[in-house]
Amino acid sequence: MSLLEVENLRVTFPTRHGPSEVVRGVSFTLGRERLGIVGESGSGKSQTGRALLGLTPPPGKATADRLSFDGSDLRGLSAREWRSLRGQRMSMVMQDPKFSLNPVMPVGKQLMEALRTHGTPRAQAKRASLDMLEAVQIRDPERVFRAYPHELSGGMGQRAMIAMMLVSEPDLLIADEPTSALDVTIQIEVLRILDRLVTDRGMGLIFISHDLRLVSSFCDRVLVMYAGRVVEELRASELHAAQHPYTRGLLNCLPQIDGDRRPLPTLDRDAAWAE
Amino acid sequence: MTTREWLLSDNPVSRRQARLGQSYRTWLDFRRNGLAMFGLAIVLVLVLVAIFAPWLAPHDPLIGDLRTTRLLPPLSEGHLLGTDDQGRDILSRLIWGSRITLAVVALVVVIATPVGLLVGTTAGYFGGWVDTVLMRFTDVVLAFPKLILALAFVAALGPGIENAIIAISITAWPPYARLARAETLTIRNSDFIAATKLQGARPARIIWKHVVPLCMSSVIIRVTLDMAGIILTAAGLGFLGLGAQPPQPEWGAMIAGGRNFLVDQWWVATMPGLAIFIVSLGFNLLGDGLRDVLDPRRRT
Amino acid sequence: MTTRTNRGRRGALWIRKAASVTGTVAVTFLGLLIVTFLIGRVVPVDPVLSVVGDRATQAQYDAAYRALGLDKPLVEQFWIWLLKVFQGDFGNSFLTTRPIAVDIARVFPATLELATVSIVIGTVIGIPMGVWAAVNQGRWIDHVVRVVGLIGYSAPVFWLGLMGLLLLYFKLDLVSGPGRVDITYEYDFTPKTGLFLIDTAMQGAWGAFGNVVSHIILPASLLGYLSLAYISRMTRSFMLNELSQEYITTARVKGVPEWRIIWVQAMRNAAVPLVTVIALSYANLLEGSVLTETVFAWPGLGLYLTNSLQNADMNAVLGGTLVIGAIFVGLNMVSDLLYTLLDARTRKR
Ligand SMILES: Nc1ncnc2c1ncn2[C@@H]1O[C@H](COP(=O)(O)OP(=O)(O)OP(=O)(O)O)[C@@H](O)[C@H]1O
Ligand SMILES: [Mg+2]
């Protein structure tokens, strides 16, 4: 049985010019594996991730024909049932640590909150939080624990965010561009942690990214999104053999260290892809 | 094509059509706000009552019959809201009083708005020390609590409705100056102002012809929001005996007059207070609704 | 980047802000003095006549004219007046014949007590109301809170006071009437601080305490209602702003319960601007107190001011105006500094 099954997921926002659908019929299943989602900015990756956690921002609405997590239906859960799932069994690394951390709470407090909410004693929560900070390669965990978000660099904030979402050891993790502000060595270390959680603990990982190359080397499968739709689903190893012109276009635009790339390639879009 | 379609067209052909269409859309938004429409209705009724006061008022507002109609309770024959200690019909006094209320609001707006616009646009347009001096002065006036400053001025100028209006105006202009200055700063460096300057227009002309019209709309919203406050301040001055003098039917002064009969003839003080409350609620609802429609950040 | 240098930089920012606020306040205060002085000079009342009386001879009149310094240039008169004001000398009141500074010191605690109880009422009710409205944005609760606030903005406070007296005191006899305390209790305690609630409680005069409470509750509730209108509206808009931030979603992702999201996560952020709002409404209460005190015969600064006004006691009017203006400026400054202090401690701007 898959960990997560999604069928015909739609997210709609009402606007002055009628409803606007930003996720339009996304379907996939996720086992205890690494699934990548790529697509250009605004293609609906983050909104897909949020809908899976029942966190579509109002006045938006999310609907699906099927949305099941570990065998139980997520549609129509009560607020209390959602709360017991979120943070404990499923969680999400938010895209922008600058806005996603509470500016007036010390980082450590926010980390501990993830555990304390679900009943872990204070001392134990603090130890686990410090360990987690250390695990995401933060050199001085005690200081970061006491610091306010604005006292951290972008990369440190991102790692604190990852630590906050991993500290409760969820079964499903949605990571929304978790490594965009990290330098290569730390990025590799963070990916290794995620990888270990997937292989050792059987966590399911949805890895959202712009970085096609990173996704193809790290994930098992890749969904390519365009204008709210999944236009192609591939095994990561077969990415170079992609069929869809949009995916091919994206691949074409990747910069290469060797070789002259002038004139810079452009991506031609076809209105028909969005149909 | 109906007028409505023409107004709501997505591709207006003329600037006028676009502007009218925008106003019409704003009106449609506004109309959906029930409370704001209620406020608008109150204000309209006030204006109509003030205009037609001589025909609407059943009795003389200033002279009553001391022998037969003194302190009659509401719903007495011929006196819907009762009479006061001078035997005057309260309803008639309220109807005539609406003229005073409206006149105070109108005059304060007519005095304070141009002063605020002048100070604000001049400060914003010239910048530098002119700006510093003018805005510092504005801040000083703002630093006083409004009613207290008005009280001090009326005390100095002597009580009376004219002086009350002047005193309220003196306390009312600073917010408009600040607003006008902020607006001026955003347009001061725009290309068309630069172009006008190149043509050799004098600053006074540029400010009057080009800067002031652009500041107008935001100042007008702010003025509407302030109208209830003006009414309350005027009533407060009247209540303290510093505004309109007897026997004028000013609502605040009427409350003060009814104070002595509060326990046994409650209506004498109650009715004018209700009138003030309803009218200022009307202005507040109207202003609130206007702000909602015109402030894009609050749109949902 | 270490915490220490950060803290140092924040300290510097705080000092610079404090310096600039103090500068602004100094200039504003000077303006306040000039305006008050000029108001005093345009009065139609002849200050000489009120000293010597209208039976005085021309020689007596001229002597008094010079003694009051009225023959000197205006700037010099201002300077003399300024020196006096800085020594706390506002002249004597015609009405009480005491120095105005003494009078003001005597009546001020009554206003302070009233304003403080009012702001407590306004805050304790206004903040939850605003939060409640924000959480239920667009639903009927939101509209009810909005209308309750608008009514507070629209009703003339002196009329509300009269209606309250009529209903709750004369008709239902639920509260005590005008004044701060009944005569029967007046000698049960000595007014040390001038704040009767504190005086009676400290001296264990509980009967008097109850009486003081029943006197203050009505005017304070009315004034509290006025500040509640403002506080609840601002709380609503600050909360709406915070609740739409990303960090709220983060908290939801962690499964944090809703009450904690609202009262801990969002409120900590909204509290910073709210402190400013509360300080400002405290200042505005001074204004409301003038009319309220008149209605409730509350022997505070507001009543002193209106009494002086009605008796053309110009020195007292100007002294009172100046004191209220100074408190107003002071509270504005405090709210400004508090904002910087609270804000700089935790965020970068
Ligand atoms: N609250 C909202 N109201 C209306 N539209 C929204 C809202 N949030 C997002 N959208 C729209 O939904 C679409 C998808 O947004 P989403 O954040 O999922 O994009 P994304 O793929 O994550 O992009 P990025 O790579 O830049 O993060 C966008 O077109 C955006 O304009
Ligand atoms: Mg995104």
Automatic annotation (TrEMBL), chain A:
Residues annotated as signal peptide: none
Keyword Transmembrane helix found: no
What does the record list as GO biological process? transmembrane transport
Which locations, inside or outside the cell, does it occupy?
Cell inner membrane
Pfam (any one): ABC_tran
What GO cellular component entries does it have? plasma membrane
Membrane topology, as annotated, equals:
Peripheral membrane protein
Main location as per UniProt: membrane
- Kindly list any coiled-coil regions of this protein: none
Which SMART domains does the record associate with it?
A: AAA (SM00382)
Residue ranges of domain ABC transporter in the record: 4-252
For molecular function, the Gene Ontology terms on record are: ATP binding; ATP hydrolysis activity
Sorted UniProt keywords: ATP-binding, Cell membrane, Membrane, Nucleotide-binding, Transport
Q: Which InterPro entries match?
A: AAA+_ATPase, ABC_Ni/Peptide_Import, ABC_transporter-like_ATP-bd, P-loop_NTPase
Question: Is Nucleotide-binding one of the keywords UniProt gives this record?
Answer: yes
| UniProt protein name | ABC transporter ATP-binding protein
Protein's organism: Primorskyibacter flagellatus
UniProtKB/TrEMBL annotation, chain B:
Residues of the ABC transmembrane type-1 domain: 98-287
Q: Which CDD domains match?
A: TM_PBP2
Topology versus the membrane: Multi-pass membrane protein
Gene Ontology cellular component annotations, sorted alphabetically: plasma membrane
UniProt subcellular location: Cell membrane
Transmembrane stretches, start-end:
35-57, 100-127, 147-173, 223-245, 265-287
Q: In its UniProt record, which GO terms are filed under biological process?
A: protein transport
- Alphabetically list the UniProt keywords: Cell membrane, Membrane, Peptide transport, Protein transport, Transmembrane, Transmembrane helix, Transport
> Which Gene3D superfamilies does this chain map to?
MetI-like
The keyword Zinc is assigned to this record: no
GO molecular function terms listed in the Swiss-Prot or TrEMBL record = dipeptide transmembrane transporter activity
In terms of domain of life, where is this protein from?
Bacteria
What's the short name of a Pfam family annotated to this entry? OppC_N
Q: Which family does it belong to?
A: Belongs to the binding-protein-dependent transport system permease family.
What protein am I looking at? Cytochrome c550
User: What organism is recorded for this protein?
Assistant: Primorskyibacter flagellatus
From TrEMBL, chain C:
Question: Gene3D superfamilies, per this entry?
Answer: MetI-like (1.10.3720.10)
Subcellular location, principal = membrane
* Lipid bilayer topology: Multi-pass membrane protein
Q: Pfam families attached here?
A: BPD_transp_1 (PF00528), BPD_transp_1_N (PF19300)
Q: Please list the residue ranges annotated as the ABC transmembrane type-1 domain.
A: 108-339
Q: Provide a Gene Ontology MF annotation, just one.
A: dipeptide transmembrane transporter activity
Concerning InterPro entries, the annotation shows: BPD_transp_1_N (IPR045621), MetI-like (IPR000515), MetI-like_sf (IPR035906)
Q: What superkingdom does the record give? A: Bacteria
Q: Which UniProt keywords apply?
A: Cell membrane, Membrane, Transmembrane, Transmembrane helix, Transport
Q: Which residues cross the membrane?
A: 21-43, 114-135, 147-170, 212-231, 270-298, 318-342
Q: What is the annotated localization of this protein? A: Cell membrane
Can you name a GO cellular component term?
A: plasma membrane
Which PROSITE patterns does the UniProt entry name for this protein? ABC_TM1
- Name the family: Belongs to the binding-protein-dependent transport system permease family.
Protein name stated in the entry: Peptide ABC transporter permease
Annotated organism of origin: Primorskyibacter flagellatus
Which lineage?
A: Bacteria, Pseudomonadati, Pseudomonadota, Alphaproteobacteria, Rhodobacterales
